Amino acid sequence: MWKQILGKLPRKSQKSDQDSPRNLNSGPSTSSPGSGRANAASPAAKRASAAVFPACAIAGIEPLLAFKDVPSSERMNLFISKLSLCCVVFDFTDPAKNIQEKELKRATLLELLEFVSQNPPKFSEPAISASCKMCSINLFRVFPPNYRSSNTGSGENDNDDEPTFDPAWSHLQIVYDFLLKLVTSTSLEAKVAKKYINHSFILRIIDLFDSEDPRERDCLKGILHRIYGKFMVHRPFIRKCVSNVFYRFVFETEKHNGIAELLEIFGSVITGFALPLKEEHKIFLSRALIPLHKPKSLGVYFQQLSYCVSQFIEKEPKLASCVIKGLLKYWPITNSQKEVMFLGEVEEILEVINMAEFQKVMVPLFQRLGRCINSYHFQVAERALFLWNNDQVLNLIAHNRQAILPIVFPALEANAHTHWNQAVLNLTLNVRKMLSEIDDALVLDCISNYQEEQECKNLAVKKRKEIWDRLENAASLQPIARNTAVLVTH
């Protein structure tokens, strides 16, 4: 189709304008002031475009004309014509294919982007429809078989850490910029545009967040955020769709490239939530955000997730205990890197939690922190002990020392006697000293109780060993018979 248009472009050997089609990129032809369609294309050029586009789509305007070459009254029709021209999608897996057509389309896309950026008159409904159609055709594209592997060059053996860059990006970037400018334009009326930027359109935008191309995800982030801001009627639907993405990621696939970007959008969205928070928003926190701590790939989006959670707590401090319970539920047992991240998030929450909410969770929380203090992974133990360097956390501990110290002191004593890492040992001794300064009598009681517990444990071990010794001795006195198991001492 593009070849038909390119074939109609003028050659250098043209004798006159009457013998060949006019140059579609040249200035306009003159017409009478009262014609109502000045600067229209020549009949030959119209036939070239008509071979590709329906007459109703181009509205009688040759799409390769420049916007400056038509009167203001015709520019919206030319805008629609150029949009129709850009609905042709090319295969970029072969760089040598359709070179001229690709360049012409790129130039046309840049014209459209410039037109939208200049705050044109109010977009008509046909213009909005054509804009959404062009974006849909170019962005919601169906990849041919082996498209991804043919562009990475290594097929199934690709390194998961290496992103896949779309070869069509030279066109896609302009389309994304066009869509962003369109959505943010004051010339676009939301009450008209919502008919075309509808649930189906938004759902496909959200689906694109799984793109392996980080440039594409960054563009989508800006577009979805602007759509959320401009189309209030679509906000519940967007929240529902993003929640569903999180649910599938956490409980089904654990594979999605755009979790960080979606969370970044919601970091801003949560900031704008009105108080008191709706029940729907609290459900989003408990069912969508907190379970996002579960996947192994938490590190990829942890910063954005932590920010979203902190925004909820800032909005409604009573949610702090709910978040800590959720963290304890999904606490990583065998992943030390995640455990360090969890400890960092716990500290951030403890810095803003009120006393009533803290008391609801302090017992299970410090039972977990005690295990972290005893961790053989020195980074986990260090991070847990660093909590005592935070004045706000220390204040919470001091006010509730009667409940907390008996929980954590056995862990501190065990570290002081057996931990292999010198840095952890030094931190442990510092914390013990700090607690002694807060309440020396309680610390002495804790030490006494710890020693009694150790004596009881040692006595239990001694008794168990004596029992095994008697059993081994009794077994050794029994005669050996065929098919009889014999207890062998070591």
UniProtKB/TrEMBL annotation:
Subcellular location: Cytoplasm
Keywords of this entry: Cytoplasm
GO cellular component: cytoplasm; protein phosphatase type 2A complex
GO molecular function, one term: protein phosphatase regulator activity
Region (Disordered) location: 1-41
UniProt-listed GO biological process terms: signal transduction
Function (record text): The B regulatory subunit might modulate substrate selectivity and catalytic activity, and also might direct the localization of the catalytic enzyme to a particular subcellular compartment.
Similarity section: Belongs to the phosphatase 2A regulatory subunit B56 family.
Name of protein: Serine/threonine protein phosphatase 2A regulatory subunit
